[in-house]
UniProtKB/TrEMBL annotation:
Bilayer topology annotation: Multi-pass membrane protein
Keyword Electron transport: yes
Transmembrane segments: 20-41, 53-71, 91-115, 127-146, 178-205, 226-245, 355-376, 388-410, 449-472
Region described as Disordered: 482-517
Compartments it resides in: Cell membrane
Organism lineage: Bacteria, Bacillati, Actinomycetota, Actinomycetes, Geodermatophilales
Protein name per Swiss-Prot or TrEMBL: Cytochrome bd-I ubiquinol oxidase subunit 1 apoprotein
BP-aspect Gene Ontology terms: aerobic electron transport chain
Residues of the signal peptide: none
PANTHER family membership: CYTOCHROME BD UBIQUINOL OXIDASE SUBUNIT 1, CYTOCHROME D UBIQUINOL OXIDASE
Ranges of biased composition (kind: Basic and acidic residues): 494-506
UniProt family annotation: Belongs to the cytochrome ubiquinol oxidase subunit 1 family.
Keywords for this protein: Cell membrane, Electron transport, Heme, Iron, Membrane, Metal-binding, Transmembrane, Transmembrane helix, Transport
Organism (species): Geodermatophilus saharensis
Highest taxon of the lineage: Bacteria
């Protein structure tokens, strides 16, 4: 592989890895804030215990997400310097606001929430958590706005050097591509968090049932409420994912038709166009004419245009159109390396776009099915003991993670060979686009990128082990005795060494970091 291919693998691996943490941080943060709000309003102890248990899970994931996210911005300057120069005038403001406003907002107020148990007023403490959660959501919006500009450049003009110059920051922030992608990502994050509550909650309920634990105590209520909350959130999020996904898909057909036709392996323009349920043939070789599908007539026309008759352009026709407009070969320019003067294949890898699109939908449906099972299995106070059902639900926690990752792979791989996709809504002479082949740093060698890829792979593997160890430890421990009291003793409080422990008293709570750990 050449430098470009290795650099793409590195960015893809680190990005997908980091994105495993992002939806859980956003979704679980929202649910923990809801739990904390419910406890402050009702004073019920089960909501306090839920807040503290799920809050620990949230914090572990947040820390690992920050650690893995730092690498992303460094890669812009290391392996993708030409890309950074091209998009810098647009990305500079977005990334600065993400770091200075959103990230510091969530980090500062999350610190207040961690250290503020029993040290600041309840409502102020709750407000700190909501500020941190809102900060993470705003942070996500700035990042998605930057990515959406790459998918659909708006608010810029082309400078004399051929690079985009930002002229309308509000247009960049209100890009319809960003609005659709953001809403889709947020409800998908809630599906991830809901699946986690369902899987772990069912596991704990079954374990307590087999241990013949009382069915009327607070801990039982913690896990039951977790399952019910997670189930309802997952089902509602699945419906909203479908709605926002339909919105996003219709925009993609307007802005990136080749991506969507590739996702359906639609070779020729058809009216009405069928939706492919399953395909076989030479997907991997991009020989579209040798691909065969089992289809649903007319459904693709409806998904693209909201009717069952309008034509949908095929891959072969779009390939010809793109070649006429943007060139049949790469420019004979040293910045393109070995690809200079070579033919351009505007069709994404069919196997990747086709199957990642279906994996995204399929895993989302699995998660919704598990949520429905959980709600049915815990109806009217029931506790499921089926090993297959409970452990299957626990394993299905990974389904929405896979769906989120597959969605991003589809989004990013589907716009190749562009790293900045041309906006079809403006005349060609005013469009901005940038090929991936010219985006890689010119002075970097294959050996250097291999070294960083292997190093990051080993580091990320170690971090995965650490996170899984911490999460498994938290799940097995369950609700601790320290979770029964909202106000741990202040540091330096007087208590005789010979004091006998009282019910619900855990001396480890003298440590201000006991909640975090």
């Amino acid at each position: 592989m050449d430098v470009l291919d290795i650099a793409r693998w590195q960015f893809g691996i680190t990005t997908v890895y980091h994105f495993l943490m992002v939806p859980l941080t956003i979704g679980l943060g929202i649910l923990v804030a809801v739990m904390h709000t419910t406890w402050v309003r009702t004073g019920k102890p089960e909501w306090l215990r839920m807040t503290r248990f799920w809050g620990r899970v949230y914090l572990v994931n947040f820390v690992l997400g920050v650690a893995t996210g730092l690498v992303q911005e460094f890669q812009f300057g290391l392996a993708w310097s030409e890309y950074s120069r091209f998009v810098g005038d647009v990305f500079g403001s977005l990334l600065a606001m993400e770091a200075l406003l959103a990230f510091f907002l969530e980090s500062t107020f999350l610190g207040l929430w961690i250290f503020g148990w029993g040290r600041i007023p309840k409502k102020l403490h709750l407000a700190a958590l909501w500020a941190a959660v809102i900060g993470s959501i705003v942070s996500a919006y700035f990042i998605i706005a930057a990515n959406s500009w790459m998918q659909h450049p708006v608010g810029v003009t082309v400078g004399e050097d051929g690079r985009p110059r930002q002229v309308d920051f509000l247009a960049v922030l209100t890009n319809n591509t960003a609005l659709a992608a953001f809403t889709h990502a947020i409800v998908a994050a809630l599906m991830v968090a809901g699946a986690l509550l369902v899987g772990i909650g069912l596991y704990q309920l079954r374990r307590r049932k087999l241990a013949q634990a009382p069915t009327t105590d607070v801990d039982q209520s913690v896990w039951r409420r977790s399952v019910r909350l997670g189930g309802y959130v997952s089902l509602a999020a699945f419906v909203l994912v479908a709605v926002t996904g339909d919105w996003q898909g219709k925009l993609m057909y307007q802005q990136q038709p080749l991506k969507m036709s590739s996702a359906e392996a639609l070779c020729e323009t058809e009216a009405p166009a069928p939706f492919s349920v399953f395909a076989w043939g030479k997907l991997g070789s991009n020989e579209c004419d040798d691909v065969h599908s089992w289809t649903v007539p007319g459904l693709l026309s409806f998904l693209a245009h909201s009717d069952f008759e309008t034509a949908v352009p095929g891959v072969n026709d779009l390939q010809e159109q793109y070649s006429e407009v943007y060139g049949a070969t790469y420019p004979d320019d040293p910045s393109f390396g070995d690809r200079a003067g070579q033919p351009i294949d505007y069709t994404p890898v069919l196997a990747v776009t086709y199957w990642s699109f279906r994996l995204m939908i399929g895993m989302g449906a699995v998660s919704a099915g598990v949520a429905a099972y959980a709600l049915w299995a815990t109806r009217r106070g029931r506790v499921p003991t089926s090993r297959i059902g409970v452990y299957g639900s626990l394993a299905a926690v990974g389904a929405p993670f896979v769906a989120n990752a597959a969605g991003w792979i589809f989004t990013e791989m589907g716009r190749q060979p562009f790293v900045v996709y041309p906006n079809p809504d403006v005349p060609v002479d005013e469009q901005v686009w940038f090929f991936t082949a010219q985006a890689v740093s010119p002075g970097i060698s294959a050996a250097e990128v291999w070294t960083s890829l292997i190093s990051l792979g080993l580091l990320y593997g170690a971090l995965a082990v650490v996170e899984l160890f911490l999460l498994v430890r938290l799940v097995r421990r369950g609700v601790t005795t320290g979770d029964t009291t909202p106000t741990p003793p202040a540091v330096g409080s007087s208590r005789r060494d010979d004091d006998a422990p009282r019910p619900g008293d855990d001396r480890s709570d003298d440590d201000v970091l006991s909640f975090a750990y």
